[in-house]
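Ops channel
N.P.: pipeline sanity check, posting one input/output pair.
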């Protein structure tokens, strides 16, 4: 908890120092480069297969960061960045400007709405907005916002309307350490305290959060 609190304090200082992102991608150029992305993420960035994330409407800075780290995962042999058998290979030939252009394009699109099953609303809302102090779990809303929109400058992703299956897989990867590109290990620290039931509930709750 101390690590998380310190990181949040540092981020608040960073956010207050700047009111706008310096991101300089070209959305039109990104559209022209996006054809290969459509196979998994859909032509409009709303992945038709739920194991892949929706990237339409995601923060450009966050998409850019993930593309950088997918490429780093491949070039470092998995020792750094984020290693994924599909995405790391896709990111390898991309230049820095390609990544910025693709990020700008997909962030300019609209993420399709999702839904939350009624049976997880109460528990999911409590865990997302308040956390669980007894288990040392902070509120998800502290970083991702009350509506799940995240924040561009801190590179906290938009999580509302995301496919539950994708959210579930990422929380499990953070929990077991197979995904480790989170700032100061924040997500790994939190995910390690989540039960399988917590992950299931949060994943479904986020699907319709708005």
């Amino acid at each position: 908890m101390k690590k998380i609190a310190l990181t949040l304090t540092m981020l608040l200082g960073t956010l207050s120092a700047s009111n706008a992102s310096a991101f300089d991608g070209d959305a039109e150029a990104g559209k022209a480069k996006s054809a290969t992305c459509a196979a998994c993420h859909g032509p409009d960035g709303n992945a038709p297969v739920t194991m892949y994330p929706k990237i339409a409407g995601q923060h450009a800075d966050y998409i850019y960061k993930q593309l950088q780290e997918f490429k780093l995962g491949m070039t470092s042999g998995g020792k750094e960045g984020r290693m994924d058998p599909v995405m790391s290979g896709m990111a390898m030939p991309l230049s820095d400007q390609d990544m910025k252009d693709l990020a700008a394009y997909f962030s300019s699109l609209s993420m399709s709405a999702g839904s939350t099953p009624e049976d997880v609303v109460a528990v999911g809302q409590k865990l997302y907005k308040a956390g669980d102090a007894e288990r040392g779990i902070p509120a998800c809303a502290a970083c991702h916002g009350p509506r799940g929109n995240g924040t561009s400058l801190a590179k906290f992703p938009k999580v509302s309307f995301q496919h539950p299956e994708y959210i579930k897989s990422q929380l499990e990867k953070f929990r077991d350490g197979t995904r480790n590109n989170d700032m100061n290990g924040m997500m790994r620290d939190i995910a390690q305290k989540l039960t399988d039931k917590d992950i299931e509930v949060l994943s479904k709750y986020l699907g319709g959060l708005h």
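N.P.: looks fine end to end. The longest helix spans residues 2-17.
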